[in-house]
């Protein structure tokens, strides 16, 4: 999986001092974008190429809390690549002790400029074929 480190900011936390639960979905988005960047493209370039990737499903399973100032790694990979959709898998790990904090996935359809689901462009399909793979298991 592709790792990307980020520090938990004060504004990411709730009154208990834990990272707010919805923050993990934002971190998943950051992980996806940085994985694409590491593969040599960007979300902007994908969209300019004629395909957007709206989220059609999101799931997160929480194990331990991330806290203010923790350095965490968002690990991202492709779980399943289908004809008209892709499912990304994620792991959020605290860097200091490699403790698994959360796992999750997001599913995205490939949406063409006409607003209809369809296959990815050949360039995007090739990029996702060579992307790191994720596992369903934590």
TrEMBL record:
The keyword Hydrolase belongs to this UniProt entry's keyword annotation: yes
Superkingdom of source: Bacteria
Keywords, comma-separated and alphabetical: Hydrolase
GO molecular function annotation: fatty acyl-CoA hydrolase activity
PANTHER family membership: 4-HYDROXYBENZOYL-COA THIOESTERASE FAMILY MEMBER, NOVEL THIOESTERASE SUPERFAMILY DOMAIN AND SAPOSIN A-TYPE DOMAIN CONTAINING PROTEIN (0610012H03RIK)
UniProt similarity note: Belongs to the 4-hydroxybenzoyl-CoA thioesterase family.
Protein name: Acyl-CoA thioesterase
Gene source species: Eiseniibacteriota bacterium
């Amino acid at each position: 999986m592709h790792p990307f480190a980020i520090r938990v900011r004060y504004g990411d936390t709730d009154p208990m001092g834990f990272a707010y639960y919805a923050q993990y979905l934002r971190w998943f988005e950051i992980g996806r974008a940085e994985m694409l960047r590491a593969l040599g493209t960007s979300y902007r370039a994908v969209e300019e190429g004629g395909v957007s990737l709206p989220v059609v499903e999101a799931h997160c399973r929480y194990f331990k809390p991330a806290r203010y100032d923790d350095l965490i790694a968002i690990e991202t990979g492709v779980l399943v690549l289908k004809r008209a959709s892709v499912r990304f898998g994620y792991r959020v790990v605290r860097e200091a002790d490699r403790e698994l904090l959360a796992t999750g996935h997001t599913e995205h359809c490939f949406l063409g400029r006409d607003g209809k689901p369809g296959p990815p462009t050949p360039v995007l399909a090739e990029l996702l074929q060579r992307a790191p793979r994720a596992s369903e298991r934590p």
